[in-house]
Design goal:
The chain is built from twelve helices and 20 strands. By secondary structure, the protein is of the alpha/beta class. The longest helix has 19 residues. The structure holds zinc ion (ZN).
Amino acid sequence: MEIRYWNKEIETADREKLRQIQLQRLKSIIASALKTPFYSRRLPSVGIHSPDDIKSLDDLRKIPFTTKDDLRQNYPKGLLSVDTSEVVRIHTSSGTTGVPTVIYLSAKDLDAATDIMARSIYATGTDKTDILQNMMSYGLFTGGLCMHYGAERVGLMVIPAAGGNTKRQIQLMKDFRTTVLHITPSYLLHVHSKLAEYSVAVSDLALKKAFVGAEPHSENTRRKIEDLFDIDAYNSYGLSEMNGPGVAFECVYKTDLHLWEDAYIVEIINPKTGELVPDGKEGEVILTNLIRHAMPLMRYRTRDLAFLHKESCPCKRTHRRLSRILGRTDDMLIINGVNIFPSQIEEVIMKIPEVGTNYQICVEKQGALDRLIVKVELYSKIFMGEAKQIDNLKAKIADELKASITLKPAVELHEPGVLPVFEGKAVRVVDSRPKL
Ligand SMILES: [Zn+2]
């Protein structure tokens, strides 16, 4: 049988070889892009009339960025390069404004995306002996189906559990001896808080690993997950516009995420100026998809903030590693003039041992000023402890947050189960200030 999930030649190719693959695939993507209504207008306007106008990878930078607004304005078919009879699947995302975006995959595109997903899974040391419980939502969202196809390609037994119904999820984990979960970090923490209620101990389960993704989370959240379940948690990165999870994935060394550079060209830019920033420096992640022809997407502004590592990885893969997502250009909160990313708050509270598995960040207006309230759930035995200790803990959390974000929030401590629970992507921030 042909192995489609471990390609040593490509995964450890030298940088020059990778650049050659990228250039050849970019030319091929340009040919497809010129067949779409959107890029057939945009590319000639910057002097690109055929793939031959791309002489080197530097020519990519002639192409203007493609934004989420471009996708919305060209919904539903403006970026489609083929007749719909060639399309085998679509995914859509609704976005916060309710205007949808769509991606299209041909049979060949789906096959290529599945190979990359399978490669990601295999890089974590997961193989056909593993049993994956896929707890991401199936359907129009890419997280469920794309992981499902990749896991089947590696030969895992897949339990397509989708999101929700925590009691049944725990039952499935027990009955089928699930070894790997694919899940959002917030939902995984919630699952842990429910184990006792269903009289299940972590030791009753066969879990070894979790692939966590679909929402930014801190290193301290990863550690918490690993400690609570006694497993390895691997960070995964993807977005529906790029085919979903598996754009970048951690290998067994868990030293941040290999971004598969034969399938994607990554650039990191200063989001304000659009200028490239060097490796090691934080900026907005820009991606060009090299393996999807039915709907080409070039220099897409993801709005995710991260940096690329300069050092090589002990696994010898040469594809550069992307840091965890440090925030999004559109999730920054400005509170009384101070710029704060929710991820900074999470980083602080998740390393405090008394803090449980759920939290919420609220911003409201009080007179002319903004008020930041950080609500955290404590483990029950801590919450039932002495009042003085609780007061001390509250002060400690407020002080540690001030040291990180420079302003001191109000801290509320709650018993477990009080704050809203999310079985998919968590909504951690509630900003009730009037919109300007
Ligand atoms: Zn590695």
